[in-house]
Amino acid sequence: MRTVRLLGLIVVTVCAAGPLPAAVVSIDANTCYQTIEGWGSSMITYSLGSTPYANQRWREAYRDLGCNILRMPMGKEVLVDGSGDMRIPVVLSDNLQNNVAKMNFNLSSVTVLGNMAAWLRTNALEPERVRIVGSL
Description:
Helix content is 34%, strand content 7%. The protein is mostly helical. The radius of gyration is 22 Å and the shape is globular.
């Protein structure tokens, strides 16, 4: 009986707080940030602690299969306030170079991808078609 009353109190408290504000996302269809023409292929591993991009045999398999897109995951640790406190928001602007300057690309999780991109520039089957796609 006591559990039911507590649960009822929680439901009433949450409902009484009112609806949560909806997230608003605006997209300007006239603004183009990035264009990728054609299509390509990519491989990625989701093994924790694994860095296949540093492994020469893995790189050669990537090349020999004709993969030409490098998917670069961008974790929160790349964009952190100068204090190192992840709770402090980092404000971005319309200036791309200023935004990039706020990012830390010296992390080991990121440099291994940069090294792979440099390797692909000279070793891909079609180096001119290599693309990097950043994703969260």
